[in-house]
Recover the amino acids of this structure.
């Protein structure tokens, strides 16, 4: 609950542009001479393409060309971890929705109409549409062999199992689980499932590509422009410097626009016609482009007579869909994220990502986190019940303290988890009238963001005191551009309104890994800070030189430099030092794992932690769950912009309500059942709890500017298990498969009676 | 041959007279030929409210409204509620309360809230939620959108300031 203290002069400039409709998104851009592409998609689950006849489509007036697999077969496949993906289906389709042709025409309307005339003949192949089917003996192989791209995007690549549908397995083991279980007072095991979920960014994927000779320009709502650049460079044999990726305002990403999505497809269309081509997908198309990985999870905990955890075992199977994308990283993270903030002397984790004949899986807000935390935190309450202990008490006695490691290879916890639990349980929202203390459920999460500490920034301080910041972070609504401007303004002691963050453009912005995993504030923020310090240093050098003053006597003030006895304006400094009345200093800053004496090298850079406490009411006649009150707490180190930070957490929690109560991208034997915005529902304003408390814990102990930690992903995690735990403690039913639809709840209530 | 029909309507207070194909959608006409791109297209199926415009003051989904159906009527878009300099009170409230993140749903929300407050300057909490039920936002979780609208609902303003 916020009280806006920001006055209009310090608000995020992007908000003003957006609220007036002036902000430009990719769909608002027009490139002169641009044609329009419409994608023909596979209606079949798994099939050999016998033939594609585009003759009739080409005869339509206004159709320029049709791109099919045969055109680009020689370019080979691409990927970001495994090289498993053709630019467009060549001889085979692996899921319903896979692109098989792109009709390129003068208008979208013509392209769409002509697309109906593209005649594709398929010969169906045996399919594997679920994890179980894909792992069965004799399951059809969705990819005949696995080609690992070592060190392409994520370090380490994937560990596929040849001659199987398993494209990655991650294992981690500490101590001796078997021995610990043998002496345990109790061993408790549970199984859970988690469905595929659609990102449902309000702005669907849209890309404009313009191939000109050996140069390629891409306009896209891409979260990781440098990954797009790299994939396109390899695919089309172009130098990185010849590929320009421009990212205007992005209408929501949540991971669904991370790594690389339809950019190669649209680039190929432009390559074919040698003109700019735009493909603007519909929401339904985007639901067939990527989705969160579904999961089947078995988790087992051994405790001693006092309720202390002796050992934990988890096996996670993730449904990666037809192409791997970053599914291997999702699997690895799901294993790390199922540990939670607990002390577990013995540990055995295994996570595998499996191909199925469904929409490709992809990164999605807190990769692998919601799947893992759903299982782990529901399980914690089951274990507590089995040993007759209060679930909050059970958590508290097993929680790792600040500075304690949950696993030897991970950075020690950098915060007090019990503080978060205390903050949600004492939230004033539960003091309000009608609150029922018995109908509450708690869940906590501690996740390790994959925030690669590699970023660069350029900060230019101009003679008039204005400043421009150039970074590859994109503005996807999180306020990254304003945060970068604030960091530069604070470091240079200039007004916020004097600083402009430039639109993301790889021709201008220096290299960065990408926007995601809650990393921008910390990693990119630190590089902006160091670039600003570099710019300041250059100014100080000029002053020290010309005025013959010791550098350490100089400080920055608004509009210039203070020498202690007087203020020199930037203009005076440039004038005297350079003999000109124009110019700028260009500050460069970079962060690498070796920065800050290696303090950033250990993983994770910081822990992203959250706690959620839900109070529920169930309509026992319908099974409908209502959540009248919810408190969410996150440790953020330091808040740079309170309204934006709270908004990130509220947005994440609301997404969590969708995950918990109704969101599921359904497949029936591989056929998508509800992949349209009519059939698939995301939370509406009436679906979020009317009484909602957002608590941000600030101890200034993060590695980012001012002690900030990254945030924006944690709050999604506790929601589903907190609600499930409330359902368990209050109504005595345990739902193990998300979402907790009225039907499932009603059936469980009937069974209990 | 596409059948063209003459229409004449008021767009943000200016009269527009032109010929349009019978099947042209209002959103395409406004974003395309008329070049006003503030209105956003998302679901394209009348379920998300991103494309909301006002027709004679009432919110409509421009993605499913035929251009010919606005003949002789008044259409208002986000451009039409934005003062020449500065922000409307609804826009200002969204900015100050952080009722937006990526901003893709925002023009639609601004239009809906503008219509709500015109019809009902002091809506109750339930009325606010009910009225905005048709506007989807994937980013904010609605908490700050609600707070923004609530701040306006409890504000006492003279009639003409609205
Ligand atoms: S785009 Fe018109 S209602 Fe969604
Ligand atoms: S602000 Fe992104 S959808 Fe509402």
């Amino acid at each position: 609950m916020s009280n806006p203290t920001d006055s209009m002069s310090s608000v995020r400039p992007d908000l003003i542009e957006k609220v007036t409709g002036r902000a430009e998104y990719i769909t608002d851009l027009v490139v002169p001479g641009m044609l329009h592409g419409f994608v023909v998609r596979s209606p079949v689950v798994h099939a050999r393409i016998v033939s594609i006849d585009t003759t009739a489509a080409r005869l339509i007036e206004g159709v320029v060309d049709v791109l099919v697999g045969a055109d680009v077969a020689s370019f080979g496949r691409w990927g970001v971890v495994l090289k498993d993906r053709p630019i467009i289906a060549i001889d085979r389709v692996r899921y319903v929705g896979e692109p098989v042709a792109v009709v390129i025409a003068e208008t979208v309307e013509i392209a769409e109409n002509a697309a109906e005339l593209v005649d594709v003949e398929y010969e169906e192949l045996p399919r594997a549409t679920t994890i179980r089917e894909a792992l069965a003996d004799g399951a059809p192989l969705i990819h005949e062999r696995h080609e690992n791209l070592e060190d392409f995007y994520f370090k380490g690549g994937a560990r596929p199992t040849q001659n199987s549908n398993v494209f990655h397995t991650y294992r981690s083991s500490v101590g001796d689980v078997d021995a610990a279980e043998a002496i345990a007072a109790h061993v408790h095991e549970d199984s859970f499932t988690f469905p595929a979920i659609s990102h449902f960014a309000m702005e669907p994927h849209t890309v404009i590509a313009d191939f000109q000779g050996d140069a390629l320009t891409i306009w896209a709502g891409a979260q990781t422009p440098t990954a797009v650049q790299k994939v396109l460079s390899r695919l089309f044999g172009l130098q990185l410097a010849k590929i320009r990726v421009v990212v205007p305002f992005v209408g929501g990403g949540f991971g669904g626009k991370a790594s690389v999505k339809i950019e190669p497809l649209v680039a190929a269309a432009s390559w074919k016609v040698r003109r700019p081509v735009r493909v603007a997908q519909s929401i339904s198309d985007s639901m067939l482009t990527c989705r969160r990985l579904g999961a089947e999870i078995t988790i087992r905990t051994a405790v001693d007579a006092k309720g202390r955890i002796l050992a934990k075992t988890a096996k996670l199977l993730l449904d990666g869909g037809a192409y791997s994308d970053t599914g291997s990283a999702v699997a690895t993270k799901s294993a790390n994220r199922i540990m939670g903030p607990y002390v577990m002397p013995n540990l055995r984790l295994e996570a595998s990502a499996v191909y199925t004949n469904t929409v490709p899986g992809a990164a999605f807000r807190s990769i692998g986190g919601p799947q893992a935390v759903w299982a782990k935190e529901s399980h914690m309450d089951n274990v507590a019940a089995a040993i007759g202990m209060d679930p909050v008490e059970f958590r508290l006695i097993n929680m790792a303290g600040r500075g304690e490691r949950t696993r030897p290879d991970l950075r020690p916890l950098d915060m007090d988890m019990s503080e978060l639990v205390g903050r949600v349980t004492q939230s004033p929202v539960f003091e309000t009238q009608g609150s029922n203390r018995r109908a509450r459920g708690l869940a906590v999460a501690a996740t390790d963001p994959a925030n690669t500490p590699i970023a660069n920034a350029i900060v230019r301080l101009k003679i008039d005191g204005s400043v421009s910041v150039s970074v590859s972070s994109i503005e996807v609504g999180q306020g990254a551009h304003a945060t970068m401007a604030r960091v530069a303004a604070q470091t240079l002691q200039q007004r916020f309104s004097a600083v402009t963050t430039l639109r993301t453009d790889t021709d201008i912005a220096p290299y960065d890994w990408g926007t995601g995993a809650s990393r921008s504030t910390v990693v990119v923020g630190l590089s902006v800070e160091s670039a600003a310090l570099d710019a300041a240093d250059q100014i100080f050098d000029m002053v020290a030189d010309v005025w013959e003053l010791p550098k350490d006597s100089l400080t920055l003030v608004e509009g210039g430099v203070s020498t202690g006895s007087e203020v020199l304006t930037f203009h005076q400094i440039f004038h005297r030092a350079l003999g000109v009345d124009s110019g700028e200093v260009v500050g460069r800053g970079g962060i690498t794992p070796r920065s800050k004496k290696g303090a950033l090298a250990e993983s994770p850079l910081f822990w992203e932690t959250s706690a959620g406490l839900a109070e529920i009411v169930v309509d026992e006649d319908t099974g409908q769950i209502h959540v009248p009150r919810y408190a969410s707490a996150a440790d953020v180190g330091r808040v740079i912009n309170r309204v934006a930070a709270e908004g990130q957490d509220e947005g994440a929690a609301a997404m969590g309500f969708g995950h918990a109560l109704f969101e599921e991208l359904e497949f029936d034997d591989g056929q998508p059942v509800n992949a349209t915005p009519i059939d698939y529902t995301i939370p509406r304003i009436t679906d979020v709890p009317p009484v909602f408390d957002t608590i941000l814990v600030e101890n200034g102990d993060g590695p980012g500017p001012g002690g900030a930690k990254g945030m924006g992903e944690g709050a999604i995690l506790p929601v589903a298990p907190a609600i499930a735990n409330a359902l368990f403690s209050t109504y005595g039913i345990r739902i193990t498969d998300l979402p907790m639809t009225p039907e499932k709840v009603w059936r469980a209530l009937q069974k209990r009676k | 041959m596409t059948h063209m029909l003459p229409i004449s309507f008021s767009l943000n207070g200016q009269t527009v007279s032109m010929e349009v194909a019978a099947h042209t959608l209002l959103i395409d006409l406004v974003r395309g030929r008329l070049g006003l791109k503030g209105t956003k297209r998302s679901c394209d199926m009348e379920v998300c409210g991103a494309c909301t415009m006002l027709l004679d003051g009432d919110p409509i989904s421009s993605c499913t409204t035929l251009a010919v159906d606005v003949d002789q009527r008044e259409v208002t878009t986000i451009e039409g509620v934005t003062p020449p300099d500065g922000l409307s009170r609804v826009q200002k409230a969204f900015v100050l309360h952080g009722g937006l993140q990526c901003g893709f749903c925002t023009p639609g929300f601004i239009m809906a809230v503008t219509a709500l407050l015109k019809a009902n300057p002091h809506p109750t909490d339930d009325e606010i939620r009910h009225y905005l039920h048709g506007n989807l936002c994937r980013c904010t979780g609605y908490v700050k959108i609600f707070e923004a609208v609530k701040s306006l609902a409890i504000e006492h303003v003279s009639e003409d300031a609205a």
About this structure: Chain B touches chain A through 51 residues (CB under 8 Å). The first strand of chain B starts at residue 4 and ends at 11. Residues 89-161 of chain B form a domain with the DNA polymerase; domain 1 fold (CATH 1.10.150.120).
